[in-house]
Write a structure and sequence with these properties.
The structure holds 2 protein chains of 2 kinds. Chain A is an all-alpha fold. Chain A has one domain. Chain A is elongated and about 65 Å long. The termini of chain A are far apart. Chain B is an all-alpha fold. Chain B has one domain. Chain B contains 3 helices and no strands. In chain B, helix 1 runs antiparallel to helix 2 and helix 2 runs antiparallel to helix 3. The relative contact order of chain B is 0.13. Classes of the chains: A mainly alpha, B mainly alpha. The interface between A and B is large, with 49 and 49 residues.
């Protein structure tokens, strides 16, 4: 039962990471690429790490539960740090005056 | 459960390669920074996979945590560095306007 839940969590996380990679390859502009990268990266990583914590804690030994709590610390850190890093890169790009992508007009 | 971990680790490695393409070929410097950040996050997860495959999770969790910290610090340092020293941009990309440079 717990194995199945772990498999579902990790497969969903890898799928979300794959969506992020497709987005970073296909989208036209730096800001839109960051839109794809910033969210899917943190969500996918947190899902996979939650699956690992669940799988590791199923023996219910004290040491394994401590390791699981440490794994959840990684998830918490990524939850805080990944949006912060994305925000910092975005702020730098805006401060340097990177132009957002627009649809080409008819006359040009 | 062993084949599942192997397939998951291989999938993560295969996802790293397109991100590496964006990091090498990315038109502006910010694409490269965000590509490096994504590769770091995937490597954090991949270290956990390696820990389960080698049956030694308690050691690899520490490495993974340290890698996440270093990834965050590195991305933040690169972002702040280029805020004070604008990157050299080729003409056709045109990412940074001339008058916007401090």
């Amino acid at each position: 039962m717990i194995n199945m839940l772990t498999a579902v969590l990790i497969a969903t996380g890898i799928l979300v990471l794959a969506f992020g990679v497709i987005g970073i390859l296909r989208l036209p502009d730096f800001y839109t690429r960051m839109h794809a990268a910033g969210k899917t990266d943190s969500l996918g990583a947190i899902l996979i790490i939650a699956g690992f914590a669940l799988y590791n804690a199923q023996s219910l030994l004290f040491g394994d539960i401590l390791v699981s709590i440490k794994i959840l610390f990684i998830a918490m850190f990524i939850f805080v740090a990944s949006p912060t890093a994305t925000h910092a890169i975005m702020q730098t790009a805006i401060a340097l005056g990177v132009e957002p992508w627009r649809k080409k007009e008819e006359g040009k | 459960m062993q084949p599942f971990w192997t397939i998951g680790a291989v999938a993560i490695v295969l996802l790293i390669f397109p991100t590496l393409y964006r990091m090498i070929a990315g038109p502006s410097i910010f694409d490269r920074i965000i590509g490096g950040n994504m590769i770091g996050t995937k490597a954090t997860v991949l270290l956990l996979f390696i820990g389960v495959l080698f049956d030694n999770v308690s050691m690899f969790v520490d490495i993974s945590l340290a890698y996440a910290l270093l990834n965050f610090i590195g991305t933040l340092a690169a972002a702040k560095y280029f805020q004070h020293r604008p990157p050299v941009v080729s003409r056709d990309e045109g990412s940074a306007k001339e008058e916007a440079r401090p």
